[in-house]
């Protein structure tokens, strides 16, 4: 994977691409690409919007995976998730319990590193409706990118 400075030369399409990957299970530096673009002169509001939309689209892939696994499918991805769930049993159970208790608003936590993906998959597995899913995931991920943008602007 290219470093943040290379991604910055790709501009907003590069940021979008990286944000989609980061929203799925691929660990890539979408925050670093966002900061590099803002540092390079891209308007923060534009960069935040592009990164948020890309990241939410990436999260939708995990949501669909969760729905698919819950319906008894998933193939190799379903087996991967089952292994991950066994390995991280107590953590996954706590996340699923939070999503059951709080419903779609718990998906604001999707911005968290590592466990954010588990919130997204749990949302799909537990049948959170698509519109509330998109609203709360967008809120969580957008706030994360806003924080990164404000931090970058303050450091300039």
TrEMBL record:
The chain crosses the membrane at residues 6-26, 102-127, 133-155. It holds the Pfam family VTT_dom. InterPro entries: DedA_domain, VTT_dom. It comes from the Bacteria. Keywords: Membrane, Transmembrane, Transmembrane helix. Residues 29-151 form the VTT domain. PANTHER family: ALKALINE PHOSPHATASE LIKE PROTEIN, INNER MEMBRANE PROTEIN YQAA. This is DedA family protein.
């Amino acid at each position: 994977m290219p470093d943040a400075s290379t991604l910055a030369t790709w501009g907003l399409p590069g940021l979008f691409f990286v944000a989609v990957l980061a929203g799925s299970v691929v660990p890539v530096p979408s925050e670093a690409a966002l900061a590099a673009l803002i540092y390079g002169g891209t308007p923060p509001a534009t960069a935040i919007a592009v990164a948020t939309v890309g990241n939410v689209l990436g999260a939708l892939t995990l949501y669909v995976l969760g729905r698919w696994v819950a319906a008894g499918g998933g193939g190799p991805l379903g087996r991967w998730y089952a292994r991950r769930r066994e390995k991280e049993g107590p953590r996954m159970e706590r996340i699923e319990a939070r999503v059951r208790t709080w419903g779609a608003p718990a998906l604001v936590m999707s911005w968290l590193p590592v466990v954010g993906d588990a919130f997204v998959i749990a949302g799909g597995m537990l049948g959170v409706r698509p519109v509330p899913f998109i609203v709360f995931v967008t809120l969580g991920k957008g706030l994360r990118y806003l924080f990164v943008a404000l931090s970058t602007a303050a450091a300039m």
